[in-house]
Amino acid sequence: MPRIDFAFGAPDRLRTACQVVRKQYLAGQRLVVYCTDASRLSAFDRLLWALDDISFIPHVLATDALASVTPVLLTASDPARAAAAAGPEGTPPWLLNLDDDCPPGYDGYERVLEIVSQDDADRQAARQRWRAYAAAGHEPQSHAIGGAQRGQQG
């Protein structure tokens, strides 16, 4: 059963997600980023390229020929299939969900990361995902952006 972490209070969901991806990439963690909204996934892709002038985060679409050797995969379809494309067995990649709904097949991941902005619609969608994870038997963890731990949401 994966650990599910929600980070609440991001000033900008995609920029914060890029920072999370950079941190995990530098720590050697492989990630699959899931979002069915093509424009949001494309914006995230562009942000990864332009996060800052001196860093580079190798990433490709999960359908790319280089997926098995690239540490960050982006997908708008089944994230379980993307995990399989992530290469040889070993430590499974983590899943970063940028979608408004819970990702399908998330149980195949060691960890699911949810970044939630201060936007009301984003927070409402996150509450729905929290309830769905809890209904499936998970105990999501809540973290406030900036480090202060918040109580569980629901």
From TrEMBL:
Pfam families per the UniProt record, alphabetical: DNA_pol3_chi (PF04364)
Chain residue ranges for the region called Disordered: 134-154
GO terms for biological process, alphabetical: DNA replication; positive regulation of DNA-templated DNA replication initiation
A GO term, aspect molecular function: DNA binding
Name of the protein in its database record: DNA polymerase III subunit chi
Lineage, highest ranks first: Bacteria, Pseudomonadati, Pseudomonadota, Betaproteobacteria, Burkholderiales
